[in-house]
Specification:
639 residues, six-stranded antiparallel β-sheet, five-stranded antiparallel β-sheet
Length: 639
């Protein structure tokens, strides 16, 4: 017997992992060698055993591969970072381990109530990769609905499934024939299906079904783990956001408490608007502008431009309507109000966005500002009353106890023995309403107080006592500034300087006469002093309210023809008359002053004689003409 016909050869075939067909070789050789039947039966038995061992070894190798694949899948799950990557790895391993052409996975859509393609491996059809299946449609829909694995060796011909045109079209375009589908389970719920499919008919062994079920279990775990991770991340993000909100709120509360304490302390110790603005910007950052009801700046901290008046009015109106601060572009506005009265506004340009608590700080600052402004107004009114009462006593007649008046003045910082001028303001400063009169008095009180003087209302007229020597300059300044406040021309007459309490009443009377003279001369809306008007001013001041009519009548009857002639012809007869009288009636000196020839002066005076009459040079007529020319010159600035 040849060695090659012994059972040992089967061991050698096993050792080199020979194909199954090679195990027939020893039997064929033994028959050819003519071995007896007993020997052939023995070899046949050895072959059967060898093939069994070979099959066992093949199953174990396959099992090792499967276990290795499952181990790798578990490792992927342990290091899960991206769900898509893990699901793609599971589907790819299913295709490799089962040796199929295609592997894919569908997941249930709870919102739409169907299942859709999630991952594919080995697919070539775009239509197939976009498939959506209703529960119960096709093999996958049936698996998703029942939670039971299904296998078909020829999908298109299998009548166990509900076929649809869309599903059959996608499967046909992919060219699939044999399909195995197993459910993805989470507890008792089915969340999807894992598939292994072939483009040719093939059976799927029980071990292959078990392997795909294991991979499906891993996929379900991966999906659930990813869901839990997503929920955990979302919860952590919410906790982080909540923590940030709590920290921000806590910081806002602390800022609000600090601001409240600071502003309360400001009110208690009598702080000013600059202190409020500094406190707000120190807490909130940025720059702040405080404005009064007229839009004038009360305080400013930091670099901030004053908005347009129209923008301020609109924003303040919105803030008052809404009862809180409002935003306009990069600026925040908070109305400063006391009841229905508008006192001004706070304008904030913050460095960062304001939260609600920060807005409350700005609004609280507006409230504190209102309190300070009301307090300041109350103090100013009280001080104004004290100053007004003092001035009223100073200009009253008879004067009582000059030393007591000096002591009262010293207490409010006024030295009565220093030079002062008295300025009387005309009634044209007042509107019809009493509030306008009070507004003028309030302005005069502030104006005089800022200059170390006094102001009062006396007999329906406002009078100011201002330190200094220039009565005319003081009158013009008061007329100019008060005109801007009232929006109408204001007349102011002044006299002085006066020194000592005893002379103030006389000086005030002269200022009133000067005011009356300005009205008589037609110079309403201007300011002047008695010194500037001279004896004419004193004379007209004594005339009273009828002075204006008398002056006009006197001018018309005395030098009216000359003035009319000059106006019509552009001549200088009135100027020539003034020069003639000014040099004592000398023709030569008048000509020299006028820079003309003596004959020209003579001709002009002859024309004056024709206009006024031959007796215009008689002493009594000459005095009237000179007085009329003086009055005309004093009235000229108003024209």
């Amino acid at each position: 017997m040849s060695v090659m016909s012994s059972p040992v050869e089967f061991l050698e075939l096993l050792a080199r992992e020979a194909a199954a067909v090679e195990f027939e070789g020893p039997l064929v050789a033994a028959r050819a060698a003519g071995l007896p039947a007993e020997r052939l039966a023995e070899l046949e038995q050895a072959k059967v055993v060898a093939l069994r061992v070979r099959a066992l070894l093949a199953r174990r190798r396959r099992r090792e591969t499967e276990l290795s694949g499952l181990y790798d899948t578990a490792s992927d799950l342990a290091g899960l970072r991206d769900l898509d990557d893990v699901l793609r790895a599971i589907v790819h391993r299913a295709r490799i381990l089962l040796g199929t052409d295609v592997a894919y996975m569908t997941l249930n859509d709870d919102e739409r109530g169907d299942t859709y393609m999630r991952v594919t491996d080995g697919s070539i059809s775009a239509r197939f990769q976009r498939l959506r299946l209703e529960l119960g449609d096709g093999l996958g829909g049936l698996v998703a609905q029942t939670g039971t694995p299904y296998v078909t060796s020829n999908y298109q011909e299998d009548e166990r499934f509900r076929h649809t045109g869309e599903i059959d079209g996608g499967v046909g375009e992919e060219g699939l024939v044999a399909i195995l589908g197993v459910p993805l389970r989470l507890g008792s719920s089915v969340i999807g299906v894992l598939y292994a499919a072939n483009r040719s008919a093939r059976p799927f062994a029980r071990e292959e079904v078990s392997l795909l079920v294991s991979l499906a279990a891993h996929a379900a775990v991966a999906i659930d783990t990813a869901r839990l991770l997503a929920e955990t991340r979302a919860a952590l993000a919410e906790l982080s956001a909540a923590n940030s909100t709590i920290r921000a709120h806590s910081s806002s509360v602390e800022r609000a408490a600090a601001a409240h304490d600071r502003m309360t302390a400001l009110v208690v110790r009598g702080g000013g608007m600059e202190d409020v603005a500094a406190a707000v910007t120190e807490v909130l950052g940025g720059a702040l502008l405080a404005l009064d009801a007229e839009g004038r700046r009360l305080a400013r901290v930091g670099e901030i431009e004053e908005p347009d008046r129209a923008d301020i009015v609109e924003a303040v109106a919105a803030s008052r309507t809404e009862g809180r601060s409002v935003r306009r572009g990069p600026l925040w506005y908070a109305a400063v109000v006391a009841g229905a009265e508008n006192l001004g506004a706070l304008v904030l340009r913050p460095d960062d966005e304001l939260v609600d608590a920060d807005q409350r700080i700005l609004e609280r600052a507006a409230l504190v500002t209102a309190l300070l402004l009301l307090f300041r107004r109350t103090v100013a009114e009280a001080e104004g009353r004290v100053r007004g009462e003092l001035l009223d006593d100073l200009i009253a007649r008879p004067l009582r106890d000059a030393d007591a008046l000096r002591a009262r003045a010293r207490r409010i910082g006024v030295d009565l023995d220093a030079p002062h001028v008295l300025v009387a303001v005309g009634d044209d400063a007042f509107a019809e309403t009493g509030s306008a009169r009070q507004r003028v008095l309030s302005w005069a009180t502030t104006y005089a107080s800022n200059r170390g003087g006094l102001a009062a209302a006396r007999a329906g007229r406002v009078v100011l006592m201002l330190p200094g020597h220039d009565a005319g300059g003081a009158a013009r300044a008061v007329a100019r500034d008060l005109s801007r406040v009232t929006g109408r021309p204001v007349t102011a007459g002044a006299s002085g300087p006066s020194t000592g309490p005893a002379s103030l009443a006389v000086t005030f009377a002269e200022a009133e006469r000067c005011l009356s003279a300005l009205g008589a001369l037609g110079r309403a809306g201007q300011g002047a002093s008695t010194t500037e008007l001279g004896f004419v001013g004193l004379l007209l001041g004594a005339v009273g309210d009828a002075g204006d009519r008398d002056v006009a009548r006197f001018l018309a009857t005395t030098v009216g023809p000359v003035l009319d002639y000059d106006a019509r012809r552009g001549t200088a007869l009135a100027k020539t008359l003034e020069a003639y009288f000014g040099v004592g009636g000398s023709l030569a000196r008048a000509a020299e002053q006028l820079h003309v020839h003596v004959n020209t002066v003579t001709q002009r005076l002859e024309r004056v004689g024709h206009l006024l009459g031959a007796d215009w040079q008689r002493p009594e007529r000459a005095l009237e003409v000179q007085l009329a020319l003086r009055l005309h010159r004093l009235r000229t600035p108003a024209r």
